[in-house]
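Severity: low
Component: inverse-folding endpoint
Summary: output formatting inconsistent between runs
Steps to reproduce: submit the following structure tokens with default settings.
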């Protein structure tokens, strides 16, 4: 096994990625792989690893090869039908969780909606953190919702999954919180992304149109109708969109617009509140 790991490194694969590929094929923890480099790979194991190595060198994300990604402490199934959950989005979950905790006295069973849920990462993380919340996730992709349902079933988290674009499946309902990590990358920028992202992750979850704001504009314009009085909308956006997103939230009749930084201090998230009292 040590020989294969050195081969993978010389081919240009990161040490951690190589170890995780071996761990997946051997169904062992990474710590076991590190401690057992002398393990003799069987022919079938070596063949499977060589196939994964070729795919990784072609830019296929590691999460698609192993079939999982950790997000906010949850092990999530990931396929090429969904965006690979990013660590930055955990910041959005943390911020949303703070809002829910702050208003727990007035919303003990908060109604939470995750738009464009993908793998279900945000919805499941919030349900895990706040078991009393009633969480719904929507997505226009049936394949993505299948992944989300599988994750919810395995994690034993009760989330409602509905198919449709943005608010369409929940017309007439009111939510205490709406949260979303929508596609927000301008088309021209998306076309220049690294091949690992552009060629393998779903464009539906990344390409936000000419200015990157198509989805955010649609969500903001419909948010007031879907929010309960005093309810909050929280969004992730591109690194240079903070001012434009805050302006869209204001135009939509929402108040108390706020910007929030990511892990590197860049304004990547925004929130606003529907006027009124819960």
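Observed output (run 2 of 3):
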């Amino acid at each position: 096994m040590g020989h294969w790991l050195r081969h993978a490194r010389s081919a240009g694969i990161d040490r951690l990625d190589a170890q995780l590929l071996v761990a997946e094929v051997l169904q062992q923890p990474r710590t076991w792989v590190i401690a057992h480099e002398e393990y003799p790979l069987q022919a079938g194991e070596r063949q499977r690893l060589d196939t994964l190595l070729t795919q990784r060198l072609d830019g296929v994300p590691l999460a698609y090869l192993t079939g999982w990604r950790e997000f906010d402490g949850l092990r999530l199934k990931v396929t090429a039908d969904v965006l690979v959950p990013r660590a930055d989005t955990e910041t959005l979950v943390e911020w949303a969780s703070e809002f829910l905790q702050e208003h727990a006295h007035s919303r003990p069973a908060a109604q939470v909606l995750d738009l464009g849920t993908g793998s279900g990462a945000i919805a499941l993380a919030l349900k895990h953190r706040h078991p009393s919340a009633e969480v719904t996730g929507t997505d226009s992709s049936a394949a993505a919702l299948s992944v989300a349902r599988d994750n919810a079933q395995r994690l034993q988290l009760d989330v409602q999954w509905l198919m449709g674009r943005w608010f369409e499946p929940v017309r007439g309902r009111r939510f205490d919180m709406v949260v979303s990590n929508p596609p927000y990358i301008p088309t021209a920028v998306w076309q220049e992304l690294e091949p690992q992202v552009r060629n393998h992750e779903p464009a539906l979850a990344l390409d936000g149109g000419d200015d990157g704001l198509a989805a955010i504009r649609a969500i903001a314009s419909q948010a007031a109708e879907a929010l309960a009085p005093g309810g909050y909308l929280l969004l992730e956006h591109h690194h240079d969109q903070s001012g434009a997103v805050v302006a869209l939230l204001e135009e939509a009749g929402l108040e108390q617009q706020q910007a929030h930084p990511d892990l590197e201090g860049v304004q990547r998230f925004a929130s606003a509140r529907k006027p009124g009292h819960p």
